[in-house]
Specification:
binds fe (ii) ion, alpha+beta, about 25% strand, 7-stranded mixed β-sheet, 11 helices
């Protein structure tokens, strides 16, 4: 088991779940199987449309268990956030076949208004590296069928791991075609979501270049538990999001917008205590709704940072860079060693986990960019939209104080630790910045000697450079991108205009990221195309561009 133990996961023991879950051996499925689309993907079935209208999901696969999720609407008045409706019992079933002829686990779960009628089951006793199908039933209505996959055994010699990588899906800025294209691939072991699964703004507060493509609910900024529940429920009605949840297990962490913009441990840029109340109350409300609505294991103390493992091939450390961080600050404060982006306990856990890892690749699910970013000689007319994108003052030079750049001491500590312990094959996969980057990780004192690499995926829909600048794609951004690369030689590639998703392809020899872009985020039927690929080889913290297409080819989808 090496450096990985179940305790690393800060596993949430959901008491009602544990009490009421009844495991049974194989039985006979009742009711009809859900409709299966191409590649066996579950599609919403008519019978499930009202009772299980928020879809099904799975998450955090371990070799012997996986988390299953749904939300039941037992009566018309039991709407999300309503706090009303009966307490009901939902049956869940796990089978090795989509027709549920071979059910291997079955149980019941009691839910009601206290948890917004969500259902979350940690199914145990499964086989490693195995496909499973699952569904829920309330009275005579079955949910759609979801498909999930357990992690390989900890000591398994894993030859290949493929992960979808996404972040920043703003409902009002467009459609989630990125999720649909990932769902249709059929070759993913899991999807990693690096945060900003929802956005907290009121309608129009963060639209697509100023245009609301589709309004979300509620229309006001979300602050209360009821608000957060309703917003989560809105997202869970999206058919592309439902399709991806039903297709593969997700491994997720939160960034700031799951609570409020530029959150830190004691507040947020988008939180005004005078009108929106106590910050701790808002965080508690947001996190309760998140725990209810997301297929993720949280620690007993609510901690989301955790580590998963895929045999001897890869570890995946998922970070929380919001809950414990010091307040954002610029200038000399960015070097203050008393300020932290991880908090001391999480940093200790991360470093110890990296050192103890026996996996070939040590992947870090990193919500905000760790690579340094100097703005060089960008003229004001280019710095303006970039400042808006990154959230820095637009009147001159400033570091990106919301990313690791605002917490230099933490980055130095991490890099120095990796170097001191001669730890190689560390790959950061990152979201947040709504743009695409392939960089080698250096510090001021190791400019020409990278220690790790970072692959940053763009947003599913959220605004980026051309949207903020109100110009066509590939115009000003090409100039700005070039200047940024010149000022930051460790940045090997960046792209500032497109939206889409990443696919991380891991083998013992290489770790490769493919950047896929969607043609038009404002169209529900948008196609997608492979735009760029970079990889890093075993033992070498240098990235190289890949020209060969992936096994699935480079054709547009
Ligand atoms: Fe975002």
């Amino acid at each position: 088991m090496g450096g990985y133990r179940l305790v690393d996961l800060c596993v949430m023991v959901d008491t009602p779940l544990e009490r009421r879950t009844v495991l049974k051996a194989a039985g006979t499925a009742a009711g009809a199987a859900a409709v299966l689309g191409p590649l066996g993907l579950a599609r919403p079935a008519a019978a499930a449309s009202t009772t299980f209208q928020h879809g099904v999901a799975s998450g955090d696969p371990l070799p012997d268990s996986v988390l299953l999720w749904t939300r039941v609407t037992p009566t018309a008045d039991a709407k999300p956030g309503s706090g009303v409706g009966p307490t009901v019992t939902v049956t869940w079933e796990v089978a090795t076949d989509a027709a549920f002829r071979s059910i291997v686990r079955r149980g019941t779960f009691e839910t009601g208004p206290s948890r917004d009628h969500t259902v979350k089951v940690d199914v145990k006793g499964l086989r490693p590296d195995t496909d499973y199908h699952y569904r829920f039933r309330y009275k005579t209505t079955n949910s759609t069928v979801g498909r999930t996959h357990t992690a390989p055994a900890y000591d398994a010699d894993v030859a290949h791991l493929k992960l979808g990588v996404v972040s920043c899906a703003n409902w009002e800025a467009g459609y989630f075609s990125a999720y649909r294209h990932l769902a249709q691939r059929g070759d993913l072991d899991a999807v990693v979501h690096l945060g900003d699964y929802i956005y907290e703004y009121g309608t129009g507060g963060f639209a697509a270049a100023g245009r609301v493509v589709r309004p979300h609910q509620p229309s006001h900024e979300i602050v209360t538990l009821q608000d957060y529940r309703v917003r989560h429920a809105t997202y869970k009605t999206d058919p592309d999001l439902q399709a991806l949840h039903a297709a593969v297990p997700w491994i997720i962490t939160w960034d700031d917008h799951e609570v409020a913009n530029d959150a830190w441990s004691g507040g947020a840029e988008n939180h005004q205590p005078a009108t929106e109340g106590n910050w701790a109350d808002r965080v508690a409300a947001a996190h309760k709704a998140y725990a209810e609505w997301m297929p993720v294991r949280l620690g007993a103390d609510g901690a989301i940072y955790r580590r998963l493992r895929f045999g001897t091939l890869a570890d995946l450390s998922m970070l929380d860079l919001r809950s414990y961080r010091s307040q954002q600050a610029g200038g000399v404060a960015t070097d203050d060693p008393t300020r932290s982006i991880t908090g001391h306990a999480q940093m200790d856990w991360l470093l110890a986990g990296l050192a103890a890892s026996e996996a070939r690749w040590k992947i870090v699910g990193n919500p905000v960019m760790i690579s340094r970013l100097d703005f060089g000689t960008l003229p004001a007319w280019l710095l303006g939209p970039l400042a808006k994108l990154i959230g820095i003052p637009s009147n001159g030079y400033a570091p990106n104080s919301d990313a690791w750049d605002g917490y230099n001491a933490d980055r130095e500590q991490l890099v120095n630790y990796l170097r001191a312990h001669e730890l190689s094959n560390v790959v950061f996969i990152t979201g947040d910045i709504h743009t695409s980057w392939a960089s080698e990780l250096t510090t001021r004192s190791t400019v020409w000697s990278p220690t790790a690499v970072e692959f940053v995926v763009t947003s599913v829909t959220s605004d980026n450079f051309d949207d903020f600048a109100h110009v066509a794609p590939d115009t000003l951004s090409l100039v700005a991108g070039g200047i940024l690369r010149a000022a930051n030689p460790h940045v090997k590639w960046n792209e500032l205009d497109q939206h889409g998703f990443g696919v991380l392809d891991v083998t013992p020899d290489t770790c490769r990221m493919d950047w896929w872009f969607v043609n038009d985020r404002t169209r529900a039927d948008s196609g997608a195309y492979l735009a760029k690929s970079f990889s890093v080889g075993n033992g070498v913290a240098r990235i190289r561009e890949e020209s060969a297409p992936t096994a699935r080819g480079s054709a547009a989808l």
